[in-house]
Amino acid sequence: MKVMLVNGSPHKAGCTNRALEEVARTLESCGIEAEIFWIGAKPVGGCVACGGCNARGACVFGDVVNEFRAKAAEADGFVFGAPVHYAHAAGSLLAFMDRLFYSNGRAGQPNVFAHKPAAAVTSARRAGTTAALDDIQKFFTISQMPIVSSRYWNNVHGNSAEQVEQDEEGLWTMRQLGRNMAWLLKCIEAGRAAGVELPEQEAGTWTNFVR
């Protein structure tokens, strides 16, 4: 089993990465493979609603979004992490996730996210972490992904990786998140081995508020 952890910070070795490292180490101690994927320091453009992913099976912009989706197909769980910018999750991660989740939903099979556990992690100097967590978790709830929680909100505080090291409660929360993710993945594997099938998918009807 494998968990992909996404570092949505422009700083590869900053606060967000330090939090994700703590989760990754805990996962590995529980027998779960973990890989941290950095989206990079370059600006990531958002979705332009061109619909090209319907035909191409991938986002028309061939960048880190398509690179990550290819890796995500082999993953069993996910953690998306971001720093707080102006009391919300960093714009680059949200743009990355907009295109990633939209193109995945329009590109046909495989759906690389449905029914796979996911968690959000945020970092901040002081405030805005819970609002940022809500930003990220909305992607999971629309994608049929069980949300993994910890013993507190999944955030760390500090203005550098060294300061995060001093946030003992934040790192404790990251470790519990890793243990909870590992437990849920093992429960899912046990259920699959026992013959528990994925939920039936209904072919519903798309409607708009204005008829």
Written overview of the protein:
- The chain has 211 residues and is α/β, with parallel strands linked by helices.
- It is 42% helix and 16% strand.
- It has 7 helices and 6 strands.
- Strands 1, 2, 3, 4, 5 and 6 form a 6-stranded mixed beta sheet that branches.
- Strand 1, helix 1 and strand 2 form a beta-alpha-beta unit.
- It is globular.
End-to-end C-alpha gap: 46 Å
* Morphology: globular
**Uncertain regions: pLDDT < 50 for 5+ in a row?**
none
Content of β-strand:
15-25%
Helix vs. strand class: alpha/beta
List keywords for this structure.
211 residues; alpha/beta; 6-stranded mixed sheet; 7 helices; 16% strand; globular
Summarize the structure in short:
This protein is an alpha/beta fold and 211 residues long. The chain is built from 7 helices and 6 strands; from the N terminus they run βαβααββαβαβαα.
Topology overview:
Elements: E1 2-7, H1 15-29, E2 33-38, H2 52-56, H3 64-72, E3 77-85, E4 88-89, H4 91-106, E5 118-124, H5 129-141, E6 155-157, H6 161-164, H7 168-193
Parallel strand pairs: 1-2, 1-3, 3-5, 5-6
Antiparallel strand pairs: 3-4
Helix pairs in contact: 1-7, 3-4
